Amino acid sequence: MAIQHATDATFKNMMQTAGVTVVNFWASWCGPCKIFAPILEDFERETSGSVNVIKVNVDENPVTSSQFQIMSIPTTLIFKDGKLVYQESGILPKQILKELTA
């Protein structure tokens, strides 16, 4: 499964999945977001679809961004069975993503 892109209109339905979901809040003008993007893509490829990865553009989706009080980007949220279990701003190494989603 490829990385999915959520909007304010689709986010809630996309989160209705069981298992682990990684949500990345980002923006096209954000330098650290550009650095984190290939790390996230590699992580998604290596999980072979066992982890759902969703990206949310903060500029285009202000409702979802404010719902989770996103104040800096990139911010990564990890959900297990629809419940938020981890949140951190900044670039996360791929190994940390693997550990947090295991």
Walk me through the topology.
Blueprint: E1 4-6, H1 11-14, E2 20-26, H2 31-47, E3 51-57, H3 62-67, E4 75-80, E5 83-89, H4 94-101
Parallel strand pairs: 1-3, 2-3
Antiparallel strand pairs: 2-4, 4-5
Description:
With about 100 residues, the chain is α/β, with parallel strands linked by helices. About 35% of the residues lie in helices and about 30% in strands. The chain is globular, with a radius of gyration of 12 Å.
Query: What string, H for helix and E for strand, traces the elements in order?
Result: EHEHEHEEH
Task: Report how far apart the termini are.
Answer: 18 Å
The structural domain count equals 1
Average per-residue pLDDT, rounded, comes to 94
Strand content: 25-35%
Q: Helix share of residues?
A: 25-40%
Based on Cα principal axes, name the global outline: globular
Report the sheet with the most strands, covering strand number, pairing sense and barrel closure: 5 strands, mixed
Q: Going across the major beta sheet, what is the strand order?
A: 1-3-2-4-5
CATH superfamily grouping: Glutaredoxin
Give unreliable regions as ranges. none
What is the β-strand count?
Answer: 5
